[in-house]
Amino acid sequence: MIKRINKQCFNCGEEFLPKTVASVYCSHICSKKAYKQMKRLKNEAEIKGMADKIPESRAFLSVPEAGMLFGISKRTLYRLVEQGKIPSVNLGTRLVRIDRSVMEGIFGPARNLRQSESVPKKKLYSLEKEDCYTIGEIAEKFQISESSVNTHIRKYSIPTRQIGKYVYAPKSEIDNLYNGNNFI
Ligand SMILES: [Zn+2]
């Protein structure tokens, strides 16, 4: 028989006599605590992973996105939006969007780590007619008024181009501005 020697508990650091050679925790309580901690860390890593996928240039966030970026539960955010405590833009049924700058005003900077990287981002848009929407098309596609579209374009410095009597804005920039990840 192998003589067991005292080990240090991975959770509390106390010495204990392990029940089996594989034991790493002194007690059930410590093993439970460690498991919970691990689960929490795993969740945090997952949330961070998802938050990192949200482009910094996206001005309008879906509620789940805003929740991830600002560390607030979806449920709480939906409640605050419903109560009107956080202003939102409604782009149609189940398409509530929150202005990122509004969130920053209330909760401080988003916890998107990419914000700390000072790598200048290349704008990859095209102002060719076929790569653009007209203001009217944007208004129709995203169910908002043309004047709101114009306001957002100015506010978020989206490039535009006038051809004839129409003003064009790059599809890529507009889609990024208004489109959240609807599947989350
Ligand atoms: Zn312990």
Automatic annotation (TrEMBL):
Which Pfam families does the protein's record reference? HTH_17 (PF12728)
The protein's GO terms of the molecular function aspect are: DNA binding
Question: This chain belongs to which protein, by name?
Answer: Helix-turn-helix domain-containing protein
The superkingdom listed in its UniProt entry is: Bacteria
The species this protein belongs to is Flavobacterium akiainvivens
Which residue numbers delimit the Helix-turn-helix domain? 60-101
Q: Which InterPro entries match?
A: HTH_17 (IPR041657), SinI_DNA-bd (IPR010093)
